Amino acid sequence: MWIDVNASHGHWPFDRLPRRTLPELEAHLVSEGIERALVSPIEPLFLADPDPSNRELLAGCRACPHLVPVPVLHLGMPDWRENLEAYQQQTDLKAVKLYPNFHHYPLSSRACRDLVRILRDTGTRLIVNIRMFDERNGYTGLKIPGVKVKHLAGFAERHADFPFLCTGLYRPEILELADRCVDFRTDLSFADWHDLINQLLTRLRPEQLLFGSHTPLFVTRAATLKLELAPIPEAIRAQIGRENARTFFRL
Amino acid sequence: MRIIDIHTHPVFFGDGAQREQVDKLVRYARSLGIERMVALGDVLYHGPTPTPEQMAEINDTTHQLMQWYPHFFIGFCGLNPLWGEPPVRAELERCVAHGFRGIKLEISNNARDRVMKPLMKAAEDFGVPVLQHTWDTKGKAMRQQHSDSSDTALLARRHPNVKVIMAHLYGIGVRGILEAKHLPNLYIDTSSCLPVAGLVECAIEQLGDDRLLYGSDLPIRELGQCIGRVSGAAISEAAKHKVLFQNACELLGGI
Ligand SMILES: [Zn+2]
Fold it and tell me: What is the CATH number of domain B3-251?
């Protein structure tokens, strides 16, 4: 059974995707062999204020033991600190997620620096989402490029002893970032190539790779089979599929 | 789970041509249930418009794979429609004599160009399918070489006696599926791109379950991921079997 570090809940309006309630999402993931999933709401990508969606998610996940809620912070809004504090008080918060390309703030902003300081003090992890869709063939009306590797590298340089997880990096971006930054983690949802994991492991440490499915935008089983059928030692499979997430997010 | 992969490039920019690499790939693919791979060649090795000599060299690499594993690799030969009729026919004839069972067209020209006519006539005469690289290129400059789904659909409409495979379900999207809807000689392969949910379901709903073919685009894609897009889709088990195996088996005239 795997731990999925990149799942979402809600309606993505640009593809005809399965619509699931939180319990339905949980049942689906469990049926695909996922024992726990870090889930963020989709709605805040398109709204100024992510707080109502985050609250709904936190409340809903109480009845779904396999789901770990990961609220979305919009660092361009004035009240993200209060929101974060409230989430931390309400629940044993494991992580928060940023969508800098949807919310239009740079990773070099003062708010980012403040966030890192707070997360470091409280032990909450940071997930930076790079992209939600493949820019080469997403819906034509939606033009949102992925977060640039140079900005991630700059962020990593400014916060050298602060490990963070990227979700949605392409394989060439993972390799480029590996050249410039030693302590990032990445999921594998957008990374692809024959014998991908062995190839990445020539440049990255096993603890840097985590299983992420990008459900419901991607077919969940495409992610599980990418891991399950990869020609890698079982210990590495368990590490990428489960143990790294367990350690990193203290699950 | 029985699988035929209709879209692979086992040799890719020179890589994968060594016997040990091929042995390893075949062993691995067979462990996943893949019984046959259609090898399309290292089609861009000499750029988008290879000469007859350059293409013959690429096709010979595919032929080598077929000789090493005659019960695993099925060759489709690369051709460049811009050569004109005699060289196109000559290379096709040479390849068919070597056991090739289809044609792969890349980005020498657009599938709607008139220059396609002699090539399609040759495909019809030799009774081989044509797999056409296709992408959503409507309104983009690249369309001159990269056929849009409407271009590949037009090719199939003009040549109803040739079976045409439109490559890259995830690159052509819902519009590509709808372009193919009323053309019984037009197939779509599931190769390339990322596994966006709902597209396999949409294709089955619009086309029925006879005209969708499993493909990976190896080595650009991981095989497990590509299999999972189909096996994890919300379609019947019977439809999965047709997409993963049966449809390609029938298109290829048995394996
Ligand atoms: Zn290809």
Answer: 3.20.20.140
